[in-house]
Amino acid sequence: GRYLTPDGSAAFMTREEIIEVRGAAPVRLTVRATRHGPVLSDVLPEGTAESGYVLALQTSFLDPDDRTADALWNINRARDWAGFRAALADIVGPQQNIVYADTGGTIGFIAPARIPIRKGGNGWMPVPGWTGAYDWAGYIPFDELPQATDPPAGHFASANNKIVPESYPYFVSRDWDLPNRVERIEELLGAEPRQSLAASAAMQADTVSIMARRLMPLMTQIQPEGDLAREAVERLRGWDFRMDADRVEPLLFTAWLRAFAHSVLFGRLGNAAADIWDLKPLVMETVLTQHREWCADPQHPNDTCEARLAAALEDAMARLRDSYGPQMAQWQWGRAHIARFSNQFLGRIPVIRDWIAVAVPTPGGYDTLNRGPSTIRDDAHPYEQRFGAGLRIVTDMAAPADSHMMAVPGQSGNPLSPHFSDLLLRWRQFDWLVPGRAAAVNTLVLEPAR
Description:
This protein is α+β, with helices and mostly antiparallel strands.
């Protein structure tokens, strides 16, 4: 077959890939590629690309000269910031926020990767590949990537937040996280600028939700009619915005915001909201402060935000009663916010899946430093923790050997090992290990097959 380019048609490049399968015949795949990269629509569900078109992927980490592995090797052998930064010039992808500190007092930040400069568009959505109008024109020069050394503030803070100003001349991403966590980091550093191991560890365990702190004064302005609704609003008005596992307020707030966001977004967008709706705290804050007309919709043109909030609160409480009991005191965050550690292979096998199940109630939430977001669109388990910090480290560069660390759920990947999940509760409680302080109780040796 052939495909269209700016210079006419061209033949697809093809290669055969063989996947060996133990106990079965090998699987043979013919991979097609265009001048931009592999054709993904050949292996994606039918209808991904319209008839007569293909969907191809161009990405820098498929370039044949990718030296990312070399960069990772060399940064572990760098002796100073200059050597560390030079090693990172070989990073192709994926782009990461990388921070640096040394015993001499130098700190640095850089987000290295081979980021394309496009003739048109920003790469966020598929574009016509046959015109050349969206082709790459080069890469962002390494010296112009986001980076800094020894800032006047004396620290760097990184929490998936936007790392470039509006004036930055290149497109890096549009998928930034809420600025809430980095805002909270700055608050805590401002309160205690001279950090200790204990202060830094406490920062990682922090459960204050900036989202709740901003939205609660807006949401609790309503005057509820029922006794239970009045109790809920009074609880939330006195809340300190900490997403602690033993508190009722975190679940009450999250369930209420979930119901309100669902009501507003589906009322305004209809079924188009099905795949995109979430808590959307910035959107809901904007609705309540600047665009209150969004609380009305074609089916309810006279609705007010107060009416929507009151109805959403009743809906949320009804669901909480059904799931957690009739008394509000039963609606503790830890009953809903549970971190599950599923085995990607054994977790698919009945009986065994339940036998090796690892789960623990956790604090934290959507935008807290003790990270614990949920998949709000999941009607069955909307508040379960979906991801978080699998590895935590706190290091004082004046005494690196005393670094505090914790991994979860345990150090062994073998479900039969007593060390498969023995760190689970210590992780939840922000207990720490200091490597080298105790003798190893087990040693795992990996040997190549003979």
